[in-house]
């Protein structure tokens, strides 16, 4: 069984129990919380449910990457280069953390190494 471990207890359940990367990101609390009323669906801020340690580590890593991009100068040639130009940094950090969680899920469940592009 594949699981993320920290010390003796499992840090997260077996990632194969999640049907897809979005479900894993939702378990971490990195997806918008849905608010529905009268058949109209709205999305609010991130839900913050699930394992807060992993979520915090992913967000700290995302903030570090965003600070590096901003110091280097934002480029509009990729998704992460364009996003800080039009969204607040924390929104971009949570979006990047969500993307990283989905990539982690895919790498672990497919037993593959990280590939760029």
Structure in words:
The model is unreliable at 5-9 (pLDDT under 50). This protein has 4 helices and 4 strands. The protein is α+β, with helices and mostly antiparallel strands and 117 residues long. It has helices spanning 21-28, 52-72, 79-86, 89-110, and strands spanning 5-6, 9-10, 32-37, 40-46. The strands form 2 sheets. A two-stranded antiparallel ribbon has the order 1-2. It has a two-stranded antiparallel sheet with strand order 3-4. The chain has one domain (17-110). The chain is 50% helix and 15% strand.
Tag the structure with descriptive keywords.
globular; two-stranded antiparallel ribbon; alpha+beta; 4 strands
What topology, given as strand order, has the largest sheet? 1-2
Quaternary status? single chain
Sheet with the most strands, sense and barrel status: 2 strands, antiparallel
Helix segment tally? 4
List the secondary-structure elements in sequence, H or E.
EEHEEHHH
Q: Rg from C-alpha positions?
A: 16 Å
Low-confidence stretches: 5-9
Label the structural class. Answer: alpha+beta
Task: Report mean pLDDT, rounded to a whole number.
Answer: 80
């Amino acid at each position: 069984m594949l699981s993320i471990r920290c010390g003796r207890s499992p840090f997260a359940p077996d990632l194969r129990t999640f049907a897809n990367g979005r479900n894993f990101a939702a378990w971490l609390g990195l997806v918008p919380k849905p608010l529905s009323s009268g058949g109209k669906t709205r999305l609010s801020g991130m839900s913050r449910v699930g394992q807060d340690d992993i979520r915090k580590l992913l967000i700290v890593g995302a903030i570090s990457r965003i600070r590096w991009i901003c110091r280097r100068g934002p480029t509009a040639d990729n998704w992460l280069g364009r996003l800080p130009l039009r969204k607040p940094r924390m929104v971009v950090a949570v979006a990047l953390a969500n993307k990283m969680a989905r990539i982690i899920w895919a790498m672990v469940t497919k037993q593959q190494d990280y590939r760029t592009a």
